[in-house]
Input
Amino acid sequence: MQWMTSKALVPARRARRDSCECLVGIGCIAALALASTTAPCASPEPTHPKAPELCSNGNCAPDAAGNRTQVPAGYELVFADEFSGTELDRSLWCTRYVYGGGAPAQVRDPECQRNGDGTADQLNDELQRYVDYNSRGERLHVVADGVLTLRATKTGTRSGSPYEAAMIRSKYLFKPTADTTYFVTARVKLPNVRGTWPALWLNSDRRPDGTLNWPPEIDIFEGALNEKEDTADMLRLGAAVRSTGQTASGQREITFAAPEFNQRWTTYKAGHSLRDRWIETAIEWTIDEVCYFVDGARIMCERYAWRYNTGEPAAPAHLLANLAIGGSWAGRHGIADEKFPTEFQLDYVRVYEKRRR
Ligand SMILES: [Ca+2]
Output
């Protein structure tokens, strides 16, 4: 598998560190080693008050319970988990990446582990391994009171991985076409713990011929919190652009940015903490564009084609939510071990589809 043999393909969600590399201009490893003495990873930017845009123009419709929702008109629900049961619904979710190479699965599921794959439990240089039960036998996916809690504990026993944490990967697969667009939304609560990196994102699944490739990737949000360059009032939003496969120029092509969005670092700065409180994050995804929303406000839109670097259409996306720990982005200024165990919570995940009539 090219993914597993070529390190160049492995680092999903690495754009942030690439950006650091550009800022200091001396290579990422050196930059990270010198991070505390060189330029910061993100530049300060002004914040401005903003009004939610998505719901301000009559686009919002009542949901089944009669509540107003930020979902634009014309969309129909096609996938959802409200987390209203007593345990993770494994008919909907796997708990490892689609790739192989990780520890044997603790929960066997032929839909999740195919041809020896579906076991990968770590990406990049993060310090956690994704498990269902930690080394103490504690369940790390907890469903109660309508909420999924993805837990992280400092209980790791494997070399280089002192933490154990939870992730989910949807069995549901989707991607837009010329006639079909998607709106993905989730209500989430992120930990206010230095060194954590909760994220909600889309990655391409396996193609029918069995191959995997990367990019594409869309980060609905990444909540890396190192408390210096990346603070509690910030989220990183954006897709992985690595070639002319994803955009015509091969560079990020932003078509809209709220004043609170830093285009250089692709970070949204809310002006108030986005941790330890419920927030609603969303994207509207069409065949050639992604728009990102936080709490109903449109933050950024960019052109994006769900294609490999070769320009070939990529396999449909699965939806991922995970609580990574440490590494050279989130963990570059240490990890607040005194606040562990910690958790990333989801009230719901919903995918809506709109077909051209
Ligand atoms: Ca719920």
